Amino acid sequence: EANHYFALTAVKEAEKIEASEVEVAQELDKLAAQYGMELEAVKKALANQMADFVNQLTLRKVEDFLYENND
After folding, report:
1. How far apart are CA 17 and CA 66, in angstroms?
2. How far apart are CA 41 and CA 69, in angstroms?
3. For 13-56, what is each residue's pLDDT tens digit?
4. CA 38 to centroid of chain Cα atoms
5. Are 62 and 12 contacting, i.e. CB atoms less than 8 angstroms apart?
6. With contact defined as beta carbons under 8 Å apart, do 34 and 64 qualify?
7. pLDDT the model gives residue 2
8. Would you state the pLDDT for residue 1?
């Protein structure tokens, strides 16, 4: 698990992959809909963990990048 994380982080840095504000907003909207919550309630619930949330979204983008570029 740790090696997987470090490998994804290395690719993230090398390829300069980040989750955009739009992508973060879309994911927050999805969570709100999934749990039947208001968007502001989701943001408040994740306030202390927003950096981790964005990082997980970014690492998912890295995994997608690797899958799409697996030649």
Report:
1. 11
2. 37
3. 999 999 999 999 999 999 999 999 999 999 999 999 999 999 99
4. 20
5. yes
6. no
7. 87
8. 81
* 32 contacts 42 by C-beta, under 8 angstroms: yes
Q: How far is CA 53 from the centre of its chain?
A: 6
pLDDT at 43: 96
Type of residue found at 48: N
Instruction: Write the secondary structure of the chain as one string of H (helix), E (strand) and C (coil).
Output: CHHHHHHHHHHHHHHCCCCCHHHHHHHHHHHHHHHCCCHHHHHHHHHHHHHHHHHHHHHHHHHHHHHHCCC
Kindly state the tokens that stand for 33. Answer: 């809909």
* The pair of three-digit structure tokens given for residue 62, joined into one six-digit string: 């890295």
